[in-house]
Write a structure and sequence with these properties.
By secondary structure, the chain is of the alpha/beta class. It folds into two domains: 3-161 and 332-364, Medium-chain alcohol dehydrogenases, catalytic domain (Quinone Oxidoreductase, Chain A, domain 1, Alpha-Beta Complex); 167-308, Rossmann fold, CATH 3.40.50. The chain has helices spanning 43-49, 97-100, 154-158, 163-174, 190-202, 214-223, 237-246, 263-272, 295-301, 315-327, 346-355, and strands at 3-10, 18-24, 31-40, 59-60, 64-72, 84-87, 118-119, 126-127, 137-141, 145-147, 182-186, 206-211, 228-231, 255-258, 278-281, 304-307, 339-341, 361-364. The two termini are 23 Å apart. α7 runs parallel beside α8. Its cofactor is Zn(2+). This is S-(Hydroxymethyl)mycothiol dehydrogenase.
Length: 365
């Protein structure tokens, strides 16, 4: 039987979000209805609201969440009613060409719910990244649920569902940082600071934080494991690159991570790395961004350039691991929770995000 709950939607491009009634249908055979506990306010949600990602309005926003499984479809075996889960948008299918060759982190056909949630008038909603969890409850595929230790703080665990895992995975998985290597991270929002923490966890000997905002740079050193920082405000590209190289014996870092996704940070990450160094791009560009470098520089610099989708994570492997590390005091997951807010405060949370006042606002239900 369908049910009605409160949820936050973006009705049209650039308009303020609305808190409305949404209708959740009965779950299909492999679907589950979950009661949402906490949802992080992620920059991706702002991208959906502003039309920078897709134009399938209206969107049911929210995707970075913890929840309790409440109702399951008749064929569900992956979870049970009452399970404490982190929601994920990489529910691997096991059947596509990537999965068949064992490259499941690049699954091309991840699972989503078999039915659409709607407004009361029947208008179908597009769930953000297939989740839509700025709502009291949401409908997802069973494989979009990853069980973790139920003793974890729901607000902290929620952040593994997207941004923190993206940055952490960009360092540990995509960048494959090894003990003793040097790393520079460009852009110190939640994703960038997660990359800093991931580099520290991986055993990097030098972790350089780079941002326009000196407050964020100092926080990276004091709270997340950076060893040095470069405040790039009022500095040209060459000056930033020179400072980074000076911190790495004149050669440049072994690994650089662009956590912004715009041409200035991309170029700084590309040119500051050591010859044959590895560059990771985890910042998500908008639909109009371009990167322009001479082809000879791409060839001559060597090494690799890798985009990081979801930090190349496997939720079933990675989410429980980092929850456990947080509970053991070995990974600062809780440090990313800047504030706890209500569902009616999301528009103001977007404004705070734009100003750089928060790492993550987390909606608690």
């Amino acid at each position: 039987m369908s049910e009605k709950v409160k949820g936050v939607i973006a009705r049209e491009k650039g308009s303020e979000v609305e808190l409305v009634d949404i209708v959740i249908p009965d779950p299909g055979p492999n679907d589950v209805v979950v009661k949402v506990l906490a949802t992080g306010v992620c920059h991706t949600d702002l991208g959906y609201r502003d039309g920078d990602i897709a134009d399938d309005f209206p969107f049911l926003l929210g995707h970075e969440s913890t929840a309790i499984v409440e109702t399951v479809g008749e064929a569900v075996t992956h979870v049970e009613v009452g399970d404490f889960v982190v929601l994920n948008w990489r529910a691997v299918c096991g059947e596509c060409r990537a999965c068949r060759k064992g490259d499941v982190k690049n699954c091309f056909n991840t699972h989503n719910a078999s039915k659409k949630m709607t407004l009361e008038d029947g208008t179908e909603l597009t769930a953000a990244i297939g989740i839509g969890s700025f709502a009291e409850k949401t409908l997802i595929h069973e494989k979009q649920c990853t069980k973790v230790d139920r003793e974890e703080d729901p607000a902290a665990a929620a952040l593994l569902g997207c941004g923190i895992m993206a940055g952490l995975g960009a360092a540990v998985n995509t960048g494959d940082i090894q003990r003793g290597e040097s790393v520079a991270v460009f852009g110190l929002g939640g994703v960038g600071l997660a990359a800093i923490a991931g580099a520290h966890l991986a055993g990097a000997s030098k972790v350089i934080a780079v941002d326009l905002d000196e407050r964020k740079c100092k926080a990276a050193v004091e709270r997340f494991g950076a060893t040095d920082y470069v405040c790039s405000k009022d500095k040209g590209e060459e000056e930033v690159i020179e400072e980074i190289r000076n911190l790495t014996s004149g050669f440049g870092p072994d690994v650089t991570i662009d956590a912004v996704g715009i041409q200035p940070t991309w170029r700084q990450a590309f040119y500051s790395r050591d010859l044959a160094g590895r560059m990771v791009m985890v910042g998500v560009p908008n639909l109009k961004d371009h990167v322009d470098i001479p082809a000879i520089d791409l060839y001559g610099h060597g090494g690799s350039i890798k985009p990081a989708w979801y930090g190349d994570c496997l939720p079933e492997r990675d989410f429980p691991t980092y929850v456990d590390l947080h509970m053991q005091g070995r990974f600062p997951l809780g440090e990313f929770v800047s504030e706890r807010i209500g569902i009616e405060d999301i528009e103001e949370a977007f404004a705070k995000m734009k100003r750089g006042d928060v790492l993550r606002s987390v909606v608690e239900f």
